[in-house]
Amino acid sequence: MIARRKVLAAGAAGSAALALAACSGDSGGGDGGVVDGSGKTITMWLMEGTNASADTYIEELKAAFTEATGATLDVQVQPWDGAHDKFVTAMAGGTGPDVAEVGTTWVPEFADAGGLDDLTEDIDAAGLAEGMVEGLVEAGTLDGVMYGMPWYAGVRSILGNKDLLDEAGVTTQPESWDDLLTMITTLKEHNPDWIPFPIPGASIFAATPFIWGAGGEIASDDGGSWSAAINAPEAVEGLSWYTDLALKHGSSTAAANTWVETDVLAEFLQEKVPMFITGSWVPATIAQDNPELAEKLVAFTIPAKDSAVAPSFLGGSLMCRFLETEEPELSFELIKLVTTGDFATRWAEETNYFPGTTEAMEEIVEAGDELTKVFATQMLEGGKSVPVTPAWGKIEGAKTMNTLVSSVLGGADVQEAADTAAAEMDEIFGG
Amino acid sequence: MTQLDSPPRSPTGGAAPLERRTVPLGRRLRRASMPWLLLAPALLVLAVLLLWPMLRVLNLSLQDFELRNLLRGESNYIGLDNYVQVLTDPFLWKTVLPNTVGFALVCVVLTMIVGTVVAVFLNSLGTAWRSISTTAIMVAWAVPALTGTYIFVWLFDPQSGLVISTLDGLGVMEPGSFNWFTNRWTFYAIATINVVYHGFPFIAVTMLAGLMTVPKELYEAAAMDGATAWSRFWNVTVPALRPIIAVCVILSTIWDFKVFVQIYLMPGGDGSTREVMNLGVWSYTQSFAQGEYGMGSTIAVLLTALLLVISVIYLRVLMKEDEL
Questions:
Q1: At what angle do helices A341-351 and A358-367 cross, to 10 degrees?
Q2: Alpha carbon of A253: minimum distance to chain B alpha carbons (Å)
Q3: A258 shares contact with chain B (CB less than 8 Å)
Q4: According to the model, what pLDDT value does residue B153 have?
Q5: Which residue of B lies nearest to A203 if distances are taken between CA atoms?
Q6: Is any Cβ of chain B less than 8 angstroms from the Cβ of A108?
Q7: Residue B182: which of A257, A267, A396 has the nearest Cβ?
Q8: What is the mean pLDDT of residues A84-91?
């Protein structure tokens, strides 16, 4: 690593010039030789399952990269399960790739630990600093340094089954919590066998829009020192309202207390669930598993207490460069190829995620259907990050928020459960 | 391991002192080192595969070691702080330890009972049926813990599993009215069925091997003396199988104490339902999910120490002095 730093320092001017030169050749093409990589190989990790037709995409990306730089691209597809451990082991053992897709919530943790490289200068030099999706930039920035290039993002909204909703006569966008509750109770009365609005205990991102929608926060940042806010009155109000849907209004089932998002989706696919909170990438999955159902999907933004759009978690991935790479310039060429231009738009289209740049985002929304527009509204008006601190990885690991939601669904007092969660978070924030 | 500790007796051990003095020192050393030399390859492999990682874990347990330390190769010794923190945590005493110990106890007892009953049953069968039945139960053993766990989770699915559907058909319970996985007792009941189901074939087959070595004459003699099947079992079978029972109990205890996959993969077992956490899951969520490798190692060391103590007690109680 030290050796690489020296090389970097010595060749800083050179690399800046190269990066500038690279600007002219973007949009996925290039004139062959912005960075001469002939005879070299760049390794990239992609996460599995995001793109159903990843194979063709990867083949064409490899060809384009070789054409642009002369280097060979080796793409290794990694499953999400156990990915965190794999990254950690790879960083510790120096066996990591040159470039990797890293989930937004992991970037601060890995960057702080010293596994990811600073991309700020490269991004500035390439003129890419403007026009990136705000939420992704926020997630990739730690202490003013960018550790990843925004690639794609997704957000959660409410997805409904038009047939069932029409049958019960609830088809309009809820403008507040009260509207949503009316929808749920109407559905419940119409057909008690349905699960009108499942409250999955093991999915925290279905719960956060209600915490945020009541004006609450998970934690608050006071000039770099974080402290839990999950037990403050607003957060507790949101949490109570959300869990009461299951506990008092029969919107869910006891079985859902341990459900993850895919479990809810499985019930939705069986057409027993009229509506649920899910990600913008899910309609594409439904289209594959149940094309008939995909025809009758309808989406609503998740309402806040008094408005139609609540903040909803903006998750996604950034393209990061590993600190250990021996080919930083070549790696950045690859990052640019993937995150800008044709390949970025194409990835977004194929995956139903939103691209990381505002320009490509507008293109996608223009061309998209009603569902896309709803999800895009939720993302642009309500996209929000979880606390951007290395400690978040630990809080996620400790499942503090999951425990909070599922224990309340299991009958625990909301304030007490929130106090416990807050104490645990503060302990982690405190180091 | 016990054999390794006591060097084999030298063939000249019983000879007169006068004769022993005549053996030159070099030759005596060579003789004494011979067994160690022969054991060296095995010991070396054990040292590399077991001893070194164990020492590393011990070393880590004395540090506040996080992802950052791992990546930068820095150590950060804090003495016994981790141990103090774990041992003074009420979560350990109220949740984790009772779950681990209670669950292991129940599983070991049940696995041994089921395994022994099945072994006795298999022993009474003819050769053909015995092979068929043995093969059938070995399938249960061959199923990976992961697959087995998912099967039980699926059977007990609170919304549409076979169990709830059957109960619904009988008019006992409505689907979705109760979640087995969020209650400590029902959670562990399901885990127990899973672990016992997965563990009994090994016990049954091992016990069967033992049963087949017990001389038939002993049973005949006991029967002649008027012993019932029950007292024949306790007075002939059990004493003859004591060493095998000891090994089975120790192995089951070790397996059931460190059970991880079967808990972690159940809904809520990954740490989100805190009251069902056991030592294995706690150690994992500390070290890998939260990157607190030092704390995770401390828990692992405590688990190992606990198992060592239990194994020693077992060996003392179950084996006679001369068998040790």
A1: 50
A2: 5
A3: yes
A4: 93
A5: B272
A6: no
A7: A257
A8: 84
Task: Report the candidate in A430, A407, A428, A429 with the shortest Cα–Cα distance to residue A418.
Answer: A407
- Domain positions in chain A are 3-153+315-384, 155-313+387-430
Beta bridge partners of A155: A314
CB of A386 within 8 A of CB of A392? Answer: yes
pLDDT in tens, A157-208: 999 999 999 999 999 999 999 999 999 999 999 999 999 999 999 889 999 9
Distance of CA B203 to the CA centre of its chain: 12
Q: Between chains, do B291 and A202 touch, taking CB under 8 Å as contact?
A: no
Q: How many Å apart are CA A241 and CA A214, to the nearest integer?
A: 9
Q: Mean pLDDT over residues B10-19, rounded?
A: 48
Cross-chain Cβ contact B268/A394 below 8 Å: no
DSSP B94-114: IIIHHHHHHHHHHHHHHHHHH
Arithmetic mean of pLDDT, A271-278: 94
E strands present in B111-181: none
Domain boundaries, chain B: 31-71, 83-323
Contact call for B292 and A399, based on CB within 8 A: no
Q: Looking at residue A152, what is its pLDDT?
A: 92
Of A28-37, A38-47, B75-84, B163-172, the range with the lowest mean pLDDT is A28-37
Per-residue confidence (pLDDT) for residue A58, from 0 to 100: 94
The H or E element spanning position A221 is strand A219-222
> What fold is seen in the domain A3-153+315-384?
D-Maltodextrin-Binding Protein; domain 2 (3.40.190)
Residue that wins the pLDDT comparison between B121 and A351:
B121
What does the pLDDT read at residue A29? Answer: 38
A155-313+387-430 falls under which CATH superfamily?
A: Periplasmic binding protein-like II (3.40.190.10)
Beta strands in A16-148 (DSSP E): 41-47, 72-78, 99-103, 141-142, 145-146
- Nearest CB to B159; choose among A85, A112, A253: A253
Q: Which helix (H) or strand (E) holds A154?
A: strand A149-161
Question: What phi and psi values does residue B159 have, to the nearest 5 degrees?
Answer: -100, -45
Inter-chain touch A92–B158, beta carbons under 8 Å:
no
Contact between B189 and B97 (Cβ < 8 Å): no
Residue B284 near residue B239, CB atoms below 8 Å = no
Chain B residue at shortest CA distance from A250: B177
Residues B83-323, CATH architecture: Orthogonal Bundle (1.10)
Please tell me the predicted confidence (pLDDT) of residue A7. Answer: 42
Cα separation of the two ends of chain A: 27
Q: Which of residues 367-396 of A touch B (CB under 8 A)?
A: 393-394, 396
pTM: 0.81
Query: For residue A173, what are the CA distances in angstroms to A187, A217, A281, B200?
Result: 15, 25, 20, 56
Pairwise CB contact (< 8 Å): B271 & A399: yes
Write out pLDDT tens, residues A277-326: 999 988 888 988 899 999 999 999 999 999 999 999 998 999 999 998 99
DSSP assignment of A45-73 equals EEETTS-TTHHHHHHHHHHHHHHHHS-EE
Total beta-carbon pairs less than 8 A apart between chain A and chain B = 101
The DSSP code sequence of A332-381 is: HHHHHHHHSHHHHHHHHHHHTPEESBHHHHHHHHHH--HHHHHHHHHHHH
